[in-house]
Amino acid sequence: MKIEGMEALGESLAVCxxxxxAGNRLDQYAAAQAGLTRSAVSRxxxxxxxxxxxxxxxxNYRLRVGDAVTITLPExxxxxxxxxNIPLDVVYEDEDLIVINKPVGMVVHPxxxxxxxxxxNALLYHCGGSxxxxxxxxxxxxxxxxxxxxxxxxxxxxxxxxxxxxxxQLKGHRINRIYQAIAVGNFREERGTIDxxxxxxxxxxxxxxxxxxxxxxxxxxxxxxxxxxxxxAEGNCFTWLRCExxxxxxxxxxxxxxxxxxxxxxxxLYGGNGTRFEAKHRALICGQCLHAGEISFVHPRTKETMxxxxxxxxxxxxxxxxxxxxx
Length: 327
Fold this sequence. Notes:
By secondary structure, the chain is an alpha+beta fold. It is 19% helix and 26% strand. The protein has 3 domains: 12-72, Roll (Structural Genomics Hypothetical 15.5 Kd Protein In mrcA-pckA Intergenic Region, Chain A), CATH 3.10.290.10; 90-164, 2-Layer Sandwich (Pseudouridine synthase); 176-324, Pseudouridine synthase (2-Layer Sandwich), CATH 3.30.2350.10. The chain is globular, with a radius of gyration of 21 Å. The chain starts with 11 loop residues before the first strand and ends with a helix.
């Protein structure tokens, strides 16, 4: 897959803003022009690889007619992240991508407080140099993420063409991701949709929040849910949920469930960790009870739809059995 006007990393694309695009945010416009994710574009803006009229501007800069936007994809950097021989649960792998079942407790990429032992460290060892460079030094190959204490499926790109193709599907809401979750409380309806924009919490920067007032930092977020089971234990009600993401915002399912009064069991950040059931079974509950159990996407080379599933991790399966019975 080739970006129109851009031959490869290190090449530049210069475009002139027309009246049709005037008023758009720079990050939105650049993402559409270059076929990149908004997060990738934000990093390019921060590093001066995207300029307006040969000057650095903020990502929320509103474009004007005649603005000259230059987008440069930097040459791949030499990664300082060390490969580590960490076992991976590989669900599928070919020359373009790899699908991983990530365990609870593994961070996807290095960050403050988690410099190594991450999925990226393991992928660098497993794949060698065969990872997309579009995610930069810290996130080679990473198309999307799941939280440290969330288990389940991730698709990782092994080359830039695959990365761009998968990122475009993600942007267009065409990668289907289905989760299973245990929420505190009783969802009275059998199914529904939570459509509420999510942005950074205005006070606690570690958290995300539903932002209902117009705000540049909030982005559309839609979660479809279905009740799979209900239970009562240790003085609380619990609901077993199937959640399908239409969008993929940070902490989306956790924030959406908490916003309707039903945080996920074990979720200390959003208020789901205060039940007596968790206190009684603390050895089994390590963070929010959330599992990315199914993912579907179109393969970047064959253009065939591929669907992958993985079972619940052992501890979460035991928690589910205690509450809802064994299947």
